[in-house]
Recover the amino acids of this structure.
């Protein structure tokens, strides 16, 4: 008996609930982590408590955002500009090979 088995990568996305941008090399940026994500469909927005956009990216490197959010406005500030608190994210993406679209809305805590 012979047959063909097709192995398909499973679509998964994980969202950390906190990060610590203290430049120690551990959890310094926020990004979803996933596999089998269509890189042309990825878009991430981060909002502060007033609804202002803190960060936006549409670049996916195969496993996470090419440049995770570092806690500053548009990733252009210094550590002194980081404000501890809870931020809201909205992530739009699609599974590879024309899979369904997904919209994720949640919160992440920035800890200093």
């Amino acid at each position: 008996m012979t047959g063909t088995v097709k192995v398909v990568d499973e679509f998964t996305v994980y969202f950390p609930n906190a990060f610590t941008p203290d430049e120690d090399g551990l959890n310094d940026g926020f990004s979803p982590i996933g596999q089998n994500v269509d890189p042309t469909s990825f878009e991430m927005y981060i909002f502060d408590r007033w609804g202002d956009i803190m960060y936006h990216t549409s670049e996916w490197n195969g496993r996470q955002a090419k440049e995770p959010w570092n806690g500053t406005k548009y990733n252009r500030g210094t550590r002194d500009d980081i404000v501890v608190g809870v931020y809201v994210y909205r992530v739009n993406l699609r599974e590879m090979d024309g899979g369904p679209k997904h919209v994720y809305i949640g919160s992440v805590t920035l800890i200093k």
User: Anything to note?
Assistant: Residues 12-110 form a domain with the Immunoglobulin-like fold (CATH 2.60.40). The chain has a mean pLDDT of 95. The chain has no helices and seven strands. The radius of gyration is 16 Å.
